[in-house]
Amino acid sequence: MPSHRMPSEADIISTVEFNHTGELLATGDKGGRVVIFQREPESKNAPHSQGEYDVYSTFQSHEPEFDYLKSLEIEEKINKIKWLPQQNAAHSLLSTNDKTIKLWKITERDKRPEGYNLKDEEGKLKDLSTVTSLQVPVLKPMDLMVEVSPRRVFANGHTYHINSISVNSDCETYMSADDLRINLWHLAITDRSFNIVDIKPANMEDLTEVITASEFHPHHCNLFVYSSSKGSLRLCDMRAAALCDKHSKLFEEPEDPSNRSFFSEIISSVSDVKFSHSGRYMLTRDYLTVKVWDLNMEARPIETYQVHDYLRSKLCSLYENDCIFDKFECAWNGSDSVIMTGAYNNFFRMFDRNTKRDVTLEASRESSKPRAVLKPRRVCVGGKRRRDDISVDSLDFTKKILHTAWHPAENIIAIAATNNLYIFQDKVNSDMH
Amino acid sequence: MEFKLEAHRIVSISLGKIYNSRVQRGGIKLHKNLLVSLVLRSARQVYLSDPCPSLYLAGHPGAPALPQQPGESVAGPPAGWGEPPPPAACAAWPEPEPQLELPAVPEVPRAGDAEPAATVTGAGDTLQGGEAEAAEAAWRRVEGPRETAVGGSDVFPQGFGAARRPCGCPPGDEDKMSASPRVDGCCAPRPAGPEPPVPPLVCPRKRGAEGVGGGPADFPAPGSTPLKKPRRNSEEQPGGAAAAAAQEEEEMETGNVANLISIFGSSFSGLLRKSPGGGREEAEGEESGPEAAEPGQICCDKPVLRDINPWSTAIVAF
């Protein structure tokens, strides 16, 4: 659903997240807004619009703030959205910017009471002399109204910039991570949180790594993982100690000395970590690769996929234009057989773990007419160039796909390309294999 | 040589990024600055590991290695970054070309400095007293923390120390961790301009260190210190009150990032003054330098100097 407004920086999508059923898709943007899309139920009457996503609700989640004590502006950009498992008719989600997490409740109203005795239809008080009889108000159907209200504000928990939030499988707690600390919150308690990870050194001069992402295990409510800027993953068990500074497992791959460069450290920084739906594996993204890790093997990933290795020789330029700091996310499909991540030039990549085949696709208006089939793209790195290949030097590095999401059950993906959201459905293979 | 050019370029780019991060919306991004500082460290190691004999001339042949101050955790460059250049040197910073040659002035026995010396005198007239005071104050503040980067503190200083060897002593072949940072003052021009207004507080420990970091060099008049202290106090009080009142009890400690710029500001121009020799190439970087400039053109090459200008000019403006 491309945005039809004039593109401005506030419209840049900063996070995308399906809810647990895939019925709802939430996006956050740099302007602090959240837009929720809802999948239209498939109907025989309108077969062409079956299963498409339409805007369900839009609200302003965060506003820019100014910390006067530190003379710091706090960006309103939504860094992450996480849905809570649905427990009643309402939907709830957590949204966070750099400093504050908010719990939003989304409710529907499709009926309204009519026939009050003391008020008229506009709500004005009736002249009591005109009331001659009593009536019981009845609920009449009305146009669907989606109401969003902030139920909790979890503030002042973080000194550094929040990079991730994750809801626990116990549905009562969640964690938020910033560069140096991870806090555990109870969803109902806003005035305090437990610090469960603290990697801040006593002397900041000794700082060598920061936390880059974190996630709770999908099934074991005591386990969580966090990734670091050094490329390592730490699996922690909250039962072991109150402060989980000692990891239960450390996942780290030794650096390949032949690839050493000025930028080795930057490109090994993990930008995203995701547990598989099964809970058996973890997926990490660093600048050039995605890796699959087995929780039972700490020494190295079990699979490594090159996202855009042709950039390895261009790291200096990418450092200069800041692209090397781009934080790409990664995603599993519902059956954990395919992994997906974004790249430049509005390309995104999918890797089939079983067949070991990969594909590069492009999210652009030109190539995405409704019901068009996405054509695989190819980046040529010299040598023979096929007709539709793109050369590395003509890649547009301003068009980056940092945020992607995969429907939990079906082959539907949401791709955020700057200020446009693309939703692709695989109608042919709508069931997961 | 290409590696050195590349390293040089990377250092200047990195410093620019660190500077820009301070004016970025949303505050300093710790992660990005940490990564930049790591790159900076690598690039500096490559750049400074060149054992060109004529590169560094002794400004302070007698400067001994400073013993670590108690409580200091970093083998930082001691106070002996060389004689603080006269305030006139700081005036040079706002100017593009002459500016970069000026900081080398204090290093008298330098080859080819006659011209810059003249320029200094001329430029010195433009400096206002306040600016000089502020520049000295900034210098002093730089000295305090002793570290040069988040996470890079244990390397930068040695890098500095390694660089500041008298000619003929290749710095690369000794244990850097234990190298006493003998700063012979050859590349110790002062950072110029007013003290950058970094919002986060430098922690009290750093301030204390700064106080005792006299060292062999003669530091600017104590009168400059009060310029900074009230500033610190004013920063501290609200902070202290906040700590008492708010749940958030600490500042985001990124003050050392600001110091990095100052430190690098001073040394970088010194690096530029090196007369290039046939340096050994360190096979660290794999990128090939884009410039085709002959080694002999490094110092005088206007495009190269222009690369450095924006950030140093920016610091002054800041």
From TrEMBL, chain A:
A single Gene Ontology CC term: protein phosphatase type 2A complex
Key word tRNA processing present in the record?
Answer: no
Question: What keywords are annotated for this sequence in UniProt?
Answer: Repeat, WD repeat
Query: What superkingdom heads the lineage?
Result: Eukaryota
The record's GO molecular-function terms, alphabetically, read:
protein phosphatase regulator activity
Q: Name the InterPro entries on file.
A: PP2A_PR55, PP2A_PR55_CS, WD40/YVTN_repeat-like_dom_sf, WD40_repeat_dom_sf, WD40_rpt
Family affiliation: Belongs to the phosphatase 2A regulatory subunit B family.
This protein's name = Serine/threonine-protein phosphatase 2A 55 kDa regulatory subunit B
User: Gene behind this chain?
Assistant: PPP2R2C
Automatic annotation (TrEMBL), chain B:
Q: Where is this region: Disordered?
A: 63-89, 130-253, 271-299
Report the superkingdom from the record. Answer: Eukaryota
- Which regions are flagged for Low complexity bias? 236-246
Pro residues: which segments have biased composition? 191-202
Give the record's family classification.
Belongs to the IER family.
Q: What name does this protein carry?
A: Immediate early response gene 5 protein
Q: Which organism is it from?
A: Physeter macrocephalus
Q: Which gene is transcribed and translated to give this protein? A: IER5
